[in-house]
Fold this protein.
Amino acid sequence: MNHLLLRVRRTIRLLLALWCACAGPAAAWGAPAPTNSTLKVGEVFPDLARFELAGEWPASLKGRIVVVDFWASWCGPCQKTFPLMEELHHRYGKRGLVILAVNEDKSRAAMEEFLKEHPVTFAVVRDAKRKLAAEINVPALPTSYLLDGAGKVRSVQPGARTARNSKEFIKEIEALLEQNSPKP
Amino acid sequence: MKPRVVLTLCLCVLTLLAAGCANVKPWERDLLAQYGMRPNRDPLTRATREHLWFSREAVNGGRSIGGGGCGCNN
């Protein structure tokens, strides 16, 4: 009986050791390991220049109100959010709002094909290595982050957005633009 | 091969497989979002299979509904 117990103990120890040895490398395969916590309201959005994003976006985002929208071509709800982003870009672009759509497709061709079918006028960049998404641990696709002039997150909107279910979000944008506009 | 070595090898393989389990993050779900991954991608095949289960295995409702049947109307 004692012998059996010893064997069981040994096996458990062996399993634990193997688990510890393998779990790390297994997690490290593929994309960068995401952090456990997502970026919350009030926290500072990471500097985009650190993430080797492919594409063009306004040279300086400092002091500007920005909506960062994470999307992918295979994500149906992202497609539903695009008209709202386009509308926001047209309505508030002149007042200083920047819409920055961050694509999370593995293939560039998939993104380009999608954009050919659904042309947009706002800035689209590609997070090819998915470093930015992993860094802020995006909770869902799509997710929109509203950033104030200091780069702080003022609102997080996970899931499909349309003009209908985004009234509060639009109000927040308007309030930020109002605060940010130069006083006479 | 000694049984102990075989056991150890089996444990190693099992542990390696278990270590491969991971949460799929939202931005990594491109393969899962493909049309071929949908359970209802082919309604005709699904209906045929449901009928086969119903008629040959006497399972009313096939795989999706519990309960039995006589399988006598095929």
User: Anything to note?
Assistant: Chain A has five helices and five strands. Residues 35-180 of chain A form a domain with the Glutaredoxin fold (CATH 3.40.30.10). Chain A has two domains: 1-30, 35-180. The CA atoms of residues 31 and 130 of chain A lie 7 Å apart.
